């Protein structure tokens, strides 16, 4: 067989990919017809593909390459740790220095009394941990019926059986017999799509009160926890109305429901603070982390627990763990990554400089005829595509037709943006410069112009 390297022609790489590699969230037969884009290298915010295109990565990989591509220090941290101790587990009363150092660092960075870390290999795994953990938290205190976890429709919490059940994605629930029992979903604070005639403020309160109504329905002695992303990511970068989170926090406090903030996307500087909980003013009992923890250089995630939760779970034997919980190489790379975020003050830069800069530039796209709303939070952004701004109308064609076309036009203009239905979203590396933000917005505008022309030509608008 030919040795498969960067030097093979793109068509050959694509054919091999189609023959043997099953992609996540992909219609394989459809992809095989056009061929997957082959990415070879990354530097800063830029990718190079096998055709030599230099592409501006508006999605930081999959919301994770916070420190940008090409960080030599991280490669060195991995190599050094592999030489010293490539693997050891943290089961059976053993530990190692990278896990100790990373846990201690996370306790220092996380707000409030979130001081204890249970490591996992990914965000999905960490959320599976959380399901068992919150249920056991109450069972260990003589409340074995306090088991239900409330989540939200259109939330994303992972792709494992537990993670996808917590998530509120109908298309995921439709495959494989989900959700698992004991998970209840309430409405999301997505004013543009679902707010009707209400003001955003009134809608934010109404959606928070759906949580309170669900608790009343179930009985508060049956509800273990509420889980949510501070800002929904995969659901379409949905920034909740300002009224939403204070009301949710009040409800969780009033009914003694644990609050799990899924910070897999919003953690590690994305919203202009170290954690989205700080930006939104939350006091979670548990935080889910992954992605930006290592800037995606190694697969690692975890749950950060408050003193209260850790004390209870620490008082029992928690029969749970992964071979790679606290993997030494992943932990060493994560630690080196946190040092970069800290030394370069990337969370602060997003909060004070690039976040506000993007907010202004992005708001400029709101005058485009296709754009019904242009929203950001730190370095996350969304453009809601609509055929009629004033009516907040959706496209008649199947949901996502305009979005898919816009994403294709972004690709054609060497910009990675993702679409969720007819919403275009970005989350670039936190190292993006102001000039690169200008480039991103200019390319997005070109893609929107081309999308609009195409929709008009095909009579869809
Ligand atoms: N939670 C959130 C909020 C996420 O965005 C994701 C991934 N996009 C996950 C959990 C799952 O993380 P992973 O893909 O690392 O399992």
Describe the structure.
With about 450 residues, this protein is of the alpha/beta class. It folds into two domains: about 35-65 and about 345-455, Aspartate Aminotransferase, domain 1, CATH 3.90.1150; about 70-345, Aspartate Aminotransferase, domain 2. The chain contains 17 helices and 15 strands. A seven-stranded mixed β-sheet has the order 4-10-9-8-7-5-6, with helices on both faces. A four-stranded mixed β-sheet has the order 1-2-3-13. The chain is globular and about 65 Å long. Bound molecules: 4'-deoxy-4'-aminopyridoxal-5'-phosphate (PMP). 4'-deoxy-4'-aminopyridoxal-5'-phosphate (PMP) binds near residues 229, 234 and 290.
The helix tally amounts to 17
Largest sheet: 7 strands, mixed
Which spans of ≥5 residues are poorly predicted at pLDDT below 50?
none
**Derived structural class:** alpha/beta
**CATH topology type of the largest domain:** Aspartate Aminotransferase, domain 2
Strand order of the largest sheet: 4-10-9-8-7-5-6
The top level CATH class name of the largest domain: Alpha Beta
Shape: globular
Tags for this model:
binds 4'-deoxy-4'-aminopyridoxal-5'-phosphate, globular, Aspartate Aminotransferase, domain 2, 17 helices, alpha/beta
